[in-house]
Structure formats: C-alpha cells, structure tokens
Amino acid sequence: MKRKFGDRANWRRVTQRQFKSRYVNSEKFTGYVTMYSIYDLKDPLWKTYGGHTFRIADKGYTWLQYYPKGAHYVVTAMFDDQGEIVEWYIDVCKIQGVTDQGVPWFDDLYLDIVVLKNGEVFLLDEDELDDALTRGYITVRDYDMAMETAREVLHAIREHRFPYFSMSLEHYRTGFVLNDVLRPGGNHDTV
Length: 191
Known about the structure:
By secondary structure, the protein is α+β, with helices and mostly antiparallel strands. Helices cover 20% and strands 45% of the residues. It is built from 3 helices and 11 strands; from the N terminus they run ββββββββββαααβ. The strands form 2 sheets. Strands 1, 2, 3, 6, 7, 8, 9, 10 and 11 form a 9-stranded mixed β-sheet that branches. It has a two-stranded antiparallel ribbon with strand order 4-5. A hairpin with a 4-residue loop joins strand 2 and strand 3.
C-alpha cells in the first residue's frame, strides 16, 4: 500500500505548484478539501480510458481533492486551463489522515474509479488489488473493504447520489479553496 499526500511534494513532473487545504464541517460535507494548482511542469500527463485519451495535468490545470471524514475513498476533480472539468478520479483507500503541517493523506487500496465529463464510468486496477492480496500486501479484510467501497460508490453514481460532481464544479466556479491558506489543521468552514 502506498501513502499519497495531497500536496504531491514528491511529484517531480510538476516544477511549480500551489497547494491549499481547508477543513470543512457542514451538513453537505465534512473533511478536508484541497486545491493543487499546476503552474509549470516538465511534461503534460495523459491518460486513456475506454478509447478516450485525456490530458489530466498540464500548465494551468487545477485539481480539487475531497477527503470525506470516515470514508474509504478520496475524490479528485481535475480541471483544465480553461476551467473545464476533465474527469473525476476516485481513489479507494484504507485510511485517511493529516500531517502536522495540515496536509491530508491516504493509504491507497489500488482500486480506482474514473468518471469522465460525458458520464462514462470506469472501474480500474482490479488486477492490482488481486495481485496485492495474492502477494500479501493487503489482508482479505482490506480486499473486501475495497471491493465493497467501490460497489457503494458505483451505486451512488448510478443513482445520481454522489455529491462530489456538482460540489466540485461549484467549488471551482466560486473559488472555494482559493480564499484560504494552508494551516495546520485547516479552517472550519461551511460548504
């Protein structure tokens, strides 16, 4: 299992960035919301899903990331340099936490869900999850939790009850995270 940090401090592709984080406690959402803005990078990052190839990281791109308190997933909304959504990427995770410096993190459980702006949904890396169990990197309990979390998220998406699509679009449009600075523990605000 790999621990992933919201500030992506070790991501060498990006040479100039800005990271902001805030803690939110409201009826709609409780947890950390982060913004990762890319100002300069060595090479754009491209991904292909279902025959569609997308640039998900480039100069001027912004990623909003949601760490819902107590959930076993983290949602990343990726916006291009024109402010258009490229995709939502949902990482299934074992646990989440925050560093003493206020940087949210999660322990990745391999399984991912991608939702494109046209509504197409892809479940990714089931083979990696299976391999991790076979090699003893995760327990049967971790495996079952990852599969159950993915099923629940996919069901919520199909039933149009997954709030992060509209929430991220609204947050990007209003500059929700821009008005805050990174502070240990973040601020307590409403969504």
